[in-house]
Amino acid sequence: MTEDRLRHPDGAEYPARRVAGRGPGWYRGDVHLHTTLSAGGELTPGQLAAAAREIGLDFVATTEHNTTAGHGEWSRYAGDDLLVILGQEVTTHTGHWLALGLEPGHQIEWRYGVRDDAIDRQLARVRRGGGICVAAHPYAPYESGTLAYPYRCFDAVEVWNGQWRSDLPWNADNEAALAEWGRNLGHDIHRGRWWPTLGNSDAHLAGQLGTPHTVVFAEELGVDAVLAGLRTGRSWIAGSAAVDLAFTAASGDRVVGVGERLDSGGEPIEVRLRVYGVPSGVVSLHTERGTVLRERLPADGAGTVRWRTAVREGGFVRAEVRHPDRRMAALTNPVILA
C-alpha cells in the first residue's frame, strides 16, 4: 500500500470531499428515507434534515410509502447546504421501487403486481418528468418486499439497503442483491446498457440516516445534476461518513473515474483505488472473470491499491472494500474499459 494523490481531468482531486455548493464535485446523499408519514417512521422531516446536516450529507430524498404528502413540508428544510429531492417509495404487491425527482405532489400508483402489466406505465410517468426509477431492496425478506420485476425495468438498483438497521447495515439480503447485479454486469456492459447501483439507509428510526449512503459526482448540487450522476453510475456507496475513496483507471495521459469509459487503444491500463477510513479492511477488485485482486489495508485504514491490466483481460473493473469481519464498507460502480 502507498499514498498518493490523483486528479481527474474535470479538475476534481480524489477523494474530492467538497463542501456542498453549486459547482462540480462529489456529493453525499441518502435517497431512501421515511418520516412519521410512513409506517414505522418515528422522525419528522425537520429532525431528519437536522440529522442529515449533522452527519455531512449534501442531499436527501423524501420517499414515503405511497404518498407525497410530505413534499410541501420538506421544502422548508432545503438550503444551499442541503438539497431535497422529492420522491416516493412505490410499494407494489410484488416489489418496491423509488420514484426520484417528482414534481411536488405528483403521486405514483402502487396498487398492482407483476401479473397486472402496469408497472411500465408508472415508470414512464416518472421518466417523462425527468426523474429516475430505482429498484429498492430486491431481496427484502417480507411480503411484497422481494422484487419480482427484473432489474432492467429500472434506471438503477439499490443493492445496499440499511433495512431499518444502523447496527447491521450489511446482511445476507444485500449480499444476494449485489451478487445478482455483479453476475450480470459483464453481459450488460457488453450489450451496451448496464444498471448503476445505489446504497441507502431506508431510515425509519433515529441514528439510521446515512448508513449507508451514495456518493455521486454531479455538475452542481441540483436535482437534475444529482439524478444525472446517479443515472449514469458516476457514484459509489459508503457505509458511513467515515469512509472515503478514489477509484480511477488510466492509460497514457487518459484518466477516468467511476462510471466512466476508458478508451485505452489497447495500451496498458493502471487501476488505482485509494481508501480512507477502513482500519485493516480488505480491498478487492472484480471483473467479469471474478475477483482479480485482494489486498489488506493498514491499521490506520488508509492506503492505495494499484493493478495493471489490459482491455483484452476484461471490459470493466469495480471495487469493494470490506471490514475485517467481511461487512461491506464501500463498493463502487464499474469503470468501463475499452
TrEMBL record:
CDD domains in the cross-refs: PHP_HisPPase
Domain of life of the source: Bacteria
Gene3D superfamilies: Metal-dependent hydrolases
InterPro entries: PHP_domain (IPR052018), Pol/His_phosphatase_N (IPR003141), Pol/histidinol_Pase-like (IPR016195)
Residue ranges annotated for the Polymerase/histidinol phosphatase N-terminal domain, each copy included: 29-94
GO molecular function: 5'-3' DNA exonuclease activity; 5'-3' RNA exonuclease activity
Identification of the protein by name: Polymerase/histidinol phosphatase N-terminal domain-containing protein
Organism annotation: Micromonospora sediminimaris
